[in-house]
Write a structure and sequence with these properties.
Blueprint lengths: L1 E3 L9 H21 L6 E10 L2 E11 L2 E8 L4 E4 L5 E5 L2 E5 L2 H17 L2 H4 L2 E2 L2 E2 L6 E8 L4 E2 L6 H4 L2 E3 L3 H9 L2 H6 L7 H29 L44 E2 L12 E6 L2 E6 L5 E3 L13 E6 L2 E6 L5 E6 L6
Parallel strand pairs: 1-2, 4-10, 5-11, 10-12
Antiparallel strand pairs: 2-3, 3-4, 5-6, 6-7, 8-9, 13-19, 14-15, 15-16, 17-18, 18-19
Helix pairs in contact: 1-5
Length: about 350
């Protein structure tokens, strides 16, 4: 049973599009395998928060014996993992390191476990008057990579290779992990009842919906208000500080403001990647999107953002409106200033 489908992709960024398509492909295979199952509940794009920490889970499978967290990765080239569990990938013959999706899923699992453990009375029943807990439940992590990727499994540690699966095999792998009811009964695994499965699914749907609504409201409240026509001119507030504070996934406003008499011809969260210049920059657009050209060393620095500072979603679109270049998260719709062109520059 699919409790939450993937959202439609509305952006224009090519890399973001292929990442989203990979997640859609995984969702398709999970739906084909478990779409009509009462025993398996699936949530896509689950956002969770607990103890001031936030995480976004691509695909969560809830089944009678536990949970499976699936990270989707769109990879065109080759994938290698060394004995230390460090990942690398190739693109057009060039190799580079990448964050471990398995480690990412482990961190998501820890946060999800803490969140559920803090709400057991709402989720699980009692046995002989004693509240049951999550002990003995099966927690598995998978990485679903593009079917076009080349996996060097022979060079991967076995525990990593067992967790990496190509998209078209993800349904079968999940089914294999869950196993059949007879073998599970023989092994006397603790089992969620249908009511507990429903409780878990409803709780997580409500949780992620509340977070998304709260994020949208907080972003709206932190937007800078336009001054009234008769108000005295004031200097423009400094950009937000994007460090999350404990207990919230929202950005904390930076209270420091530039002196009223100090001119600010350009506002930027960017510096030249080569020489560190922050002022002598010119906004440009090229084959790979918006970037700034440094007037000091002539180097180009991309405006692409690695992730949303609010929800950590990795698909952020940069757009231009007059002299301002703004980043907008495609997940929570949080937007923030990346660069503002100085007057008189092309």
């Amino acid at each position: 049973m699919i409790l939450k489908e993937k959202d439609a992709y509305t952006g224009a960024d090519e890399r973001g599009y292929y990442g989203h398509k990979q997640e859609q492909d995984v969702a398709f295979h999970l739906r084909r395998e478990f779409g009509n199952s009462e025993q398996v509940r699936i949530i896509h794009d689950l956002v969770i928060e607990h103890g001031g920490e936030c995480a976004q889970i691509d695909h969560l499978v809830i089944h009678p014996y536990g949970f499976i967290i699936i990270e989707s990765k769109s990879i065109v080239g080759e994938v290698q993992v060394n004995a230390e569990g460090e990942w690398s990938r190739s693109y057009k013959g060039n190799w580079s390191g990448m964050a471990s999706p398995i480690r990412q899923a482990e961190l998501q699992k820890d946060l999800l476990h803490a969140l559920l453990s803090n709400n057991l009375a709402r989720l699980l029943g009692k046995l002989l008057g004693i509240q049951t807990k999550l002990g003995g439940r099966d927690w598995q992590k998978l990485c679903a990579v593009s079917s076009t990727a080349i996996l060097h499994r022979e060079k991967m540690p076995k525990d990593v290779a067992d967790k990496v699966v190509k998209t078209e095999f993800v349904g079968g792998k999940v089914k294999e992990i869950i196993g059949n009811g007879v073998s599970a009964f023989i092994k006397v695994k603790p089992r969620f009842t249908l009511q507990e499965l429903e409780n878990l699914g409803n709780f997580l749907l409500e949780h992620t919906s509340t977070l998304q609504l709260g994020t949208a409201k907080a972003v709206q409240e932190t937007k800078v208000q336009e001054p009234t026509p008769n108000a005295a001119p004031v200097s423009e507030p400094a950009p937000l500080s994007y460090v999350a504070t404990p207990g919230t996934c929202q950005p904390e406003p930076d209270t420091a403001e530039p002196p009223a008499d100090t001119p600010s011809p350009a506002i930027s969260l960017l510096t030249c990647k080569q020489c560190g210049e922050a002022d002598n920059l010119t906004g440009m657009y090229g084959q790979y999107g918006y970037y700034v050209k440094c007037g000091s060393c002539n180097a180009n620095t991309s405006m692409k953002q690695p992730s949303c500072p609010v929800c950590s979603w990795k698909s952020v679109k940069v757009s231009k409106d007059g002299p301002s270049y703004t980043a907008t998260c495609r997940k929570c719709e949080h937007d923030y200033l990346v660069y503002r062109q100085a007057e008189g520059r092309a």
